[in-house]
Design goal:
It is a single chain. With 265 residues, the protein is an alpha+beta fold. It folds into two domains: 189 residues, Up-down Bundle (Alpha-lytic protease prodomain-like), CATH 1.20.1510; 71 residues, Cation efflux protein, cytoplasmic domain (Alpha-Beta Plaits, 2-Layer Sandwich), CATH 3.30.70.1350. Helices cover 68% and strands 12% of the residues. It has eight helices and four strands, in the order ααααααβαββαβ. Helix 1 runs antiparallel to helix 2, helix 3 runs antiparallel to helix 6 and helix 4 runs antiparallel to helix 5. The longest helix is centred in the middle third of the chain and has 30 residues.
Amino acid sequence: MTSFKVVSVILATALIGGLIKIIGGLLYGSRALFVDALTCFANFVALIATIHYYRISLQPPDTDHPYGHYRLGYAGVIISLIAYGYVAGVASVELLYSVEYTVGFEAVYYAVAGSILYGLTIWLSMRIGGVFKAYGLFTVSELYESLVTIFASIAGALYTYLIDYIGAIGLTIYIFYELIMICRETISMIVDKSAPRSMVDEVKSMIEKHGYQVLDLRIRCIAPNIYHGDVRVKIPKNKTVSIDDLKKKLREKYNLDIVVEAIEQ
């Protein structure tokens, strides 16, 4: 299949998997399955946003964005936060006002069917690679949630609804945990964080290897594996490489766009 067809299948399986779970939860009373379905839809919204803003982030620099559009890719993460926050609120209200209910065993079939579709979604995402591989790794948690849902719905149907209810509470707590983790990662990504110390040392060593004396060097990470920086150097009397060539080598090796301020000796 072409990449476009694979992406279409990924979107379709993710959407249908969520629909199957929410139908099963509503028809057969499983709160665990209902909460699991909500996380599936939040995941689907996150997927759409990730694809959209990832494509925008690849656009070349323009007048309004002279350093590129890389950080617009984080908009997908922000929308994911909104989606999961909304789902956490709906799930909390649903559980707060729940009264004694009955879980139909048919809910198990819907839980299993939805899990199979999400397994296919993850497999295809890992296969296509790129941003979808990251999405697939993130979505593996949906399979763990599905296992909890299947167990909770089986026990809820065969023994007591309270087991299903406890499963739903556990899933809701996990949503809040994911929100906290995504928030931390987002904050870490959008601040002007320095490049790894090892990379800074390598860049400095490379510049000095070409005969320049490094007076000051700053490198920041603006997106995964994409860096901007500035450096002040003293120009040697006998240069082995021009500044433009040095900048080209740094861009090729480290994906580093660097401004060089040269001071003559």
